[in-house]
Amino acid sequence: MKAPQYALLITLCMTVTLGAFAAEDKPLTLASQGSFFVGGEIKKIPAAGPAAAGDMTVNQMYVQYQSPLNADRHLPVVMVHGCCLSSKTWETTPDSRMGWNEYFVRKGRSVYLADQVSRARSGFDPTKINAVRSGSAQPSELPNVLAASHQTAWSVFRFGPSFNVPFPDGQFPVQAIDELYKQMIPDLNSTLPNPNPTWTNMAALAKQLKGAILMGHSESGFFPEQAALIDPAGVKGIISIEMPCQTNLTEAQVSTLAKIPTLIMFGDHLGDVQGGPANWANSFDTCQKFVEQLTKAGGDAVMMHLPKMGIKGNSHMLMQDKNNLQLADLILGWIDDHVESKKKPVRK
Amino acid sequence: MKAPQYALLITLCMTVTLGAFAAEDKPLTLASQGSFFVGGEIKKIPAAGPAAAGDMTVNQMYVQYQSPLNADRHLPVVMVHGCCLSSKTWETTPDSRMGWNEYFVRKGRSVYLADQVSRARSGFDPTKINAVRSGSAQPSELPNVLAASHQTAWSVFRFGPSFNVPFPDGQFPVQAIDELYKQMIPDLNSTLPNPNPTWTNMAALAKQLKGAILMGHSESGFFPEQAALIDPAGVKGIISIEMPCQTNLTEAQVSTLAKIPTLIMFGDHLGDVQGGPANWANSFDTCQKFVEQLTKAGGDAVMMHLPKMGIKGNSHMLMQDKNNLQLADLILGWIDDHVESKKKPVRK
After folding, report:
1. Distance between CA A301 and CA A291 in Å, rounded?
2. Cβ-based neighbour number of residue A248 at 10 Å
3. Could you give the ipTM of this predicted complex?
4. Closest to B149 (Cβ–Cβ): which among A49, A54, A96?
5. d(CA B153, CA B316)
6. Cβ–Cβ of B132/A142 closer than 8 Å?
7. Which residues of A touch B184 (CB under 8 A)?
8. Which residues, in sequence order, are bridge partners of residue A37?
9. Which end of chain A, N or C, is less surrounded by CB atoms within 10 Å?
10. Which residue, B99, B104, B96, B118, is CA-closest to B220?
């Protein structure tokens, strides 16, 4: 084949490939993928039983990524899961539909999934458990390992007014709820130092990527803000989904955050579940106030309260809800308009 | 464009795509990817502090998969990591080269990475820890959480004769060893019932896939055999890398395993590290004997002792060694010849 013909073929192939990008049932083409760690420090561990004393690495954060072709057209997106969960949150849903990780890649974004420090593939620091076992520490010093029950999940994740009774308009695929329960794993965040190393590592990752959008959910919902307060250099946008917001930040802290476009998203039925440890209506109020604080400081902060936008029935696990890709499109549109668009300057 | 021209273009595009498959720096095209759980059972948990009593799911196994185009030409491969590690084992190496997971996909295989039950994204059962913390169980009942130190890893993984002294011909990328240390996470296998649910779940996964090749390493090296002894129906091939083999199986058990083509692989310097909890020379001897037992029972069992094949310097973490793709090719060749080839019947 002659060179010009070959060039035409390559162009046509690229068109075919790019045209397939957004369709969920078409092949997915990646420029690259892999995994690595951010952060981590060396800790001396004492001898425990037959094991000799030595060094171990703690507080590292495992990150898994995929990049589409031409990923440099968009900012990378870092997704961090919530309590008692792992990055499984963002992958295929309990009823096996596409998750936000792949959908964002198909929309041309590099996606970085981080397992929180002390969770899943990031590991945790077990020295206190072994110290109590060997008698060198007291049982009261054991970490409070948070193991949320199915009943707690049903209530906190707002699947319905009471256990196993779904909301009639609920978007969560409750027929596959057992698959969500399998995602729930022990949460050892109570073992972590302050500041939480996940915050530090998220800030470092954003910088390492030369700019990224940080997304958090629930327990990690305010982590993007915490990361930016540690080092805002790499944080180009913040997406905070369903959490209590901090409204007691200093003026200097609010000013730092106001330089970063911020999206906050809440689902439906915030006040419709009785009992349980979460108070979503109250969390929503704190975030409304936080948005006002950012706006007053000159920031670009958007609150998407889905039912107010006519999108009904979303649960707390909205990235797994039946309309999850519709919500992803809302977020992608917000990124286009508020973070990446030249028309609307990011820093006012 | 006319239909025949379009058909030609599609053919050419497919050729371009398929031609790129084995090249490590070319885009990767996936037919599908995702994650799910195998197994799991519901356990009642007592109230712990502010948390009410309820149900939790334990013993589930998290599995992440990728399928290339035309994956049905080959059997899927299930990879299970070893002690104190997660599926990160098979992903990009400590020095950021391609891991076996992607390489096998590029060679046309569906790859399933399983986090062992009680590790990483599979979660673990924390009830004993919480019971001791609340005073309803004794410290001696705490699980023995295995946290391997850097020093133990250096010795057990055979990076050199003594800590921080590498073998002159060593294949492990020791300059990136800190990145391996970050992969090492607490091992709670001591909390598991017998039989280990990972074995049961591996057998179930192989069956669910309507036939698969099971691969284990180190702690999980003999798990494919254990899975096949629970249910051989889906286990079409076994790859066991660097572990002690069981040589006290019954005649009926050996007969079951002898129906499945088996590959065992060991690296170099088996007797060249002094001290530490592992005795690789002894493990090798048990596997030699196991191969003899399978062969005597009519089985097709192959021992690849790499230095005997002229491949020198491989560590215990050989899937991360500098020649890791060369070793992957050996395994792929074995699959072709011993599992998938029509010429050499699988069941003698």
Report:
1. 6
2. 6
3. 0.92
4. A54
5. 10
6. yes
7. 56-57, 123
8. A62
9. N
10. B118
